[in-house]
Each structure stands twice: as C-alpha cells, then as structure tokens.
Amino acid sequence: MKTFKYLLLGMMVLLTTFITYQVNAQTITNYDTTTSGLLDNYITAIAIDNQENKWFGTYGSNNRLSVSKFDGTTWESYTLPNSIASNYITELVFDKEGNLWAGTYASGVLKFDGTTWKNFTTTDGLPNNGVFAIAIDAMDNKWFGTASGVSKFDGNVWTTFTTGDGLANNLIYSIVIDNKDNKWIGTGDGVSKFDGTTWINYLNYEGSRQEYIVDIAIDSKDNKWFGIDVVSGGAVSKFDGTNWKTFIPGDGYSGYVESIAIDAQDNIWVASWGGISKYDGSIWITYTTADGLLINGATALAIDKEGSVWIGSDKGISKLSNENTPTQSVLLETLLTLYPNPVQNILHLNLPGKTGIIEIFDVTGKSLLQRQIQHNNPSIDVSGLQNGIYMVKVLSDNQLVIGRFVKQ
Length: 408
Fold this sequence. Notes:
The protein has two domains: 2-21 and 328-407, Sandwich (Immunoglobulin-like); 24-325, YVTN repeat-like/Quinoprotein amine dehydrogenase (Methylamine Dehydrogenase, Chain H, 7 Propeller). 4% of the residues lie in helices and 50% in strands. It is built from one helix and 36 strands. A hairpin with a 2-residue loop joins strand 15 and strand 16. The longest helix has 15 residues, at 2-16.
C-alpha cells in the first residue's frame, strides 16, 4: 500500500511538470494575388536566400512576370527577358555568391545576379531545354537535371551524363548532393548515385512498375528521403545507406508526393495531393484546408531559419509558422475520461476535441507510445504494456489534458 502511495505521489510530481508544457501551435497565413503582391497564384518553386527573403517561381501565366520576392513586408516581381519562350519556372536555387539559378520548362536555365538575367540553353551545352532540377556542389559546380540527362557546368565547360554513362534514366526530376559530394539523382525510373566516377542505381520500388523520384532530401544523420510517384500512388522512402524503409499514404499522409523538406529538428515534411504532412520519426501529422491551407494539393516546400514552412500551390502560398503558446493543462481527469480503468487490452478515451496527439508514459516519465487522434473517441491497444500505473498526456485543440490508468 505504501509503494502504491509513493507511485501516485511520483506521478503527481511528473504531472505538475506538464503544467508549463509548451506546444508549437501552428499558425497558417495565406497569400494570393488578391491579398498580397504575389504575381501569380500557381507556385512551382520556392527558394530562400541568405537574407531570408523568399523567392517564388510561378507557372508564368502573368505575361513575362515569373518570379516574386517577399522580404516579409514588401513584394517585388521580376520580368524575364523577352527572348525566353517559356516563363514556366521549375526550380530555384541560390549559389554561394547569391546568384539565383532558375530552371524553366522549355527555355533552359537562367542566372539572375540581382540585376541581369542570363539564359543558358542547348546552344551553350545543355542536352535539353527542359530543366527540372538544380544542385550546386562544394566546388560551385552547377548540376542540372533535364529531360535528356544531367549536365555539370563548372562556369566554362559543360559535361553531360546519360544512360550511356550509367544514369538510370535520362528524365531527371531531382538532384541533391550529400556531405561526401555524392550526387543523388531522382529519375523517371529510380535513383542514381554518382560519386564522380562510379554510378550505382536503385530501381524497382514496385517490381517492374516505373517509378518517378520527384524529390530528395537528406537529414542530419545522412539518411536520404525520397518522394516517389508510381502508378498506384505516392510513397516516401528512407535509405540509411543499407536499409530502405517505405511509407505509403495509409501510414499517415495522403496522395501523390510533390515535394520533401527537412527542418532543423529533422522532422520530415511531405507535400502531397492530400495536404502537408509532418513526420517526427514516430507519428505523422497532416495539415489540410480544415486547418487553414488554401488547398490540399501542394506543389513546393521550403523551410526558413525560424522553422516556418512555406507551401506553394496552384492557389497561392500558405505559411505554416510556429508560435510557442503555453497550453492550459488539467491535472485531474476533469476533461479526460479513460475506460475501462483498470484495463487489460483496449483503453478508450473520451475527449472534447477531435484531433490531437496521445502519449503514454510510465511512472518514471519514459514515453512508451504515441499516436495521432483522428476522431473524438479514440482507443489504444495497451495489451503489450506490463501491469502497472501509467500516465496519458493528450494535446487536443491546443489544450493539454492528463490522466492515469492502471494496466492489469
């Protein structure tokens, strides 16, 4: 009996630490042509310069205007040269000198030094004027993914690589460069890794079905994350250098993948046809129009130094920003009903909110289980827990509620 009393006392001490629990409440701000200086609602690319200005490439439906810049207060738009046949921007990347490199759908690549646009096409050395991916290595070489292979440009000489050199497929959608200077190239049929000498190809996520590697990102542990579009839908794959782990829409996000970005905390952000999803290594959280997005289908992603996620769509831009907000918690089970209690297998929770995160702790404060709430009467299988006393913490509708239960 005394042991049980001390356990309860320890639990209450742990519970009181949650009173000042800070949550990252997400605020969504939307920008379009009617509410801001954005020149075109169809956003196709996003880049952030070293001054934290946001640059947006567009579909180019507004005459020659194809790029918008936003400094947080003022919008500025840029007109492409009249010689550019296609002002549909596919990619935006800044080099270390601050030059903006822009890929276009059918007019090659553009370099903008803040004043002048310079156009590079097949006449200069590109294998194709459709440029869909750009990456810059440690030696400041520019790598361009086109519809006819990959081109490296050192400032003077163009070198092109195709399937004849070892590339998996000549249609290139994405390029990233890791800290060992390996080039990871997403193609129209798998991934190619190029170390400067040797090509290694990773193919056939779905057997013989063709797969499009639409985006690639690298986390702080050097894991590669791939956004994949296949006939059956989208997938997200993680590769640690040895093993692959693949997530499909039913695992927590929805629809075909358009873009992947990784924040400073190594959260994986996925833009898909079903919304914007965040994966923290354990659970997926998805934001949709119900949370304030302009549209569920996203076309581009970028994350600034403050951790705000900038989301492009064909309806404009949504900014998903963090605001550290103290959450009012309830120590006793005033709002959180757990039943049956004690429980053997399935624990039911009855909450006023409809979405949120459930977390279960043991008496030492160790987190044992996390999951996302999708409705207001969730249940959890606790049959795998050892007999004892556990705490439940639920963040729902910006309110933290806490309860406890006994597992028998």
